[in-house]
Design a protein that fits this description.
Distance between the termini: 35 Å
CATH topology: Spore Coat Polysaccharide Biosynthesis Protein SpsA, Chain A
Strand content: 15-25%
Number of strands: 10
Bound molecules: guanosine-5'-triphosphate, magnesium ion
Order of helices and strands: EHHEHEHEHEEHEHEEHE
Number of domains: 1
Radius of gyration: 17 Å
Length: about 260
């Protein structure tokens, strides 16, 4: 089981060290490679990540790459999936660079994939039995829960989280590159989930911890909520409109410290 861990990071200089400190030798032994993806934010995420890698002696398994332009959260997923494909990985794990998830809980998702290799995705879930939320506003909790109910009813499948910051994806189920047509911004995971539903890809939700401490929130909840409902209704009535994108748009380069 060859796993690439990708850490999409945009203005995460204050959190990325904590995320990287979560990679102990035992976890590193379970993965092939870890890339911190600096998505061209305005801060020193890449330099701070590189300094942490040097201090914790995480190289060569852990390295920093910079997207060749700001690709967005969705675009960063696409870049990571293509990167994983090129290196012959079986799975890509996505871990947000803002330390809202717990790096060590990646072990739990890998355990599930090892137990059941037929699963196409193991999705970290913030809103189920066993999930641990801290510092997360009740508006966001109930806003997410409400949309999850609407999704579960219309998709007729339990939809317990539309996109957390800790997930494990099997590349075999993504070989059709349908994801290239998905949103490049904050609702990529929603398009991906609906795509899995269309393809009847076996997937599970797994409880994770999720915290809000010193992160700068970029997510515009109401806007994302509206897009989530619009995407669901388009999907339900067969009116989904994939965007036209080429794989060549999603490239990155190894980070070179100045
Ligand atoms: N906002 C934003 N985030 C990006 C971008 N590229 C990568 N990311 C990363 O995508 C992840 C999710 O973005 P967040 O803004 O934290 O969104 P969120 O976690 O859904 O919302 P919060 O709970 O407010 O943090 C973070 O790790 C970001 O660093 C980008 O272009 N814009
Ligand atoms: Mg976040």
């Amino acid at each position: 089981m060859k796993i690439l861990v990708a850490i999409p990071s945009y203005n995460c200089e204050g959190q990325i060290s904590r995320v990287l400190a979560g990679f102990d030798q035992a976890l590193l032994n379970r993965v092939e490679k870890v890339i911190v993806i600096d998505d061209r934010g305005k801060d020193n995420t890449a330099a701070v990540a590189q300094k942490t890698i040097d201090e914790l002696k995480l190289a060569p398994k852990v390295e920093v790459v910079q997207n060749d332009r700001n690709l967005g959260l969705g675009g960063s997923h696409k870049m990571a999936f293509l990167y994983g494909e090129r290196m012959g990985a079986d799975y890509v794990a996505i871990l947000h660079g803002d330390d809202q998830a717990k790096t060590q809980e990646l072990n739990n998702l890998i355990n599930v994939a090892e137990k059941d290799p037929s699963l196409g995705a193991i999705l970290g879930c913030r809103f189920m039995k066993g999930s641990k939320l801290s510092g997360y506003s009740w508006e966001r909790i109930w806003g997410n829960r409400a949309i999850n109910v609407v999704y579960s009813v219309l998709a007729m499948r339990p939809s317990l989280d539309l996109g957390s910051g800790l997930n494990l994806f099997r590349l075999k189920d993504l070989a059709d590159h349908a994801y290239l047509g998905y949103d490049d911004r904050m609702t990529f995971n929603i398009d991906l989930l609906l795509g899995y539903y269309s393809k009847k890809t076996p997937l599970v939700f797994y409880p994770i911890s999720w915290s809000e401490t010193d992160q700068v929130s970029n997510a515009r909840n109401v806007t994302i909520g509206k897009i989530a409902l619009r995407q669901l209704f388009r999907w339900r009535f067969g009116l989904s409109r994939p965007e036209h994108h080429e794989a060549s748009e999603y490239t990155s380069s190894p980070y070179k410290a100045a």
